[in-house]
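User: Predict XRE family transcriptional regulator's structure from this.
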Amino acid sequence: MPHATQHADVAAATTAELDAALRSGPFHVALRAAIAARGLPLQRVQHHLSRRGVKVGVTSLSYWQQGARRPQRPESLRAVRALEEILQLPEESLIRLLAENDAHACAQRPAARSYRSFVEASGVLERLLAELSLPPDGGLHTLGHHERVRIGARRELAGRESHHIVRAHRDGVDRFVAVHHGDPECAPERMRLHALDNCRTGRTRVHHDTGVLVAELLFDTRLRAGDTFLFRYGVEDGTAGESREYVRGFGPVGGQYALQVSFDGRALPTRCHRFTQHSAAAPRGGRLELPISARHHSVHLVEPRVRTGVLGIGWDWE
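Assistant:
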């Protein structure tokens, strides 16, 4: 009976892993071990939650067990209590781990935007663009893009402003799709996008689980192939907790990109750095410390010609 013995050994190891995780945590490790021990795919877990009147997306469940997000809202905490029942765990076992970890949440909080989150958000973005009947290729090539990000007194991503210089590569282009990707636990339905120069706001869509806001910016003119255009818009956010980095993902090779991050004088980080990441499997590289301007409380980077991948600025709090 070698197969039966192997199965018993695996089951015993899985149970031991779960018991250890429930004793010492952290929460996401215990949740992942419990789901694995019960052999339930996330879709089935979501189904069981739904039958109990608790609505949680599969993406959120995935984030929770990866440690990319933590349940914090009342509905999310209700889901955790329901998960204890669904996964046949001792009462209060997961809630206790959340409470124990809360004192260290700031130190343990993951990076605000991982490459994985960009990959997951890209699928959401495709669906939102389909809802708006917009093609992924908007017919514009970016010649220059300057972003200014504001970090508020609560260390939150307060908002950002984007100034674009583009050239049409086909006739008839009359709009741009603006995308804002908020920090974990953000509320995109409470964000506000403002058209500032040479454009006006059209239709908008949000996806709560990934924190994505998508909005049309209408030009009030139809560009011909080769025409250039300048426009500017801003996003008011401030809906999430402590921010630790701002990341911009790029597709094909493009033009110049400049990113400036400004901090409230009442909440300054201890250090800042720039970084790059070429693919989801690649480690982060290109790390370079960035001095914070004493007068303007800001740091910046300039990339003369962006390449496929991720570019960003991260910072550390005390």
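Residues 115-316 form a domain with the Immunoglobulin-like fold (CATH 2.60.40).
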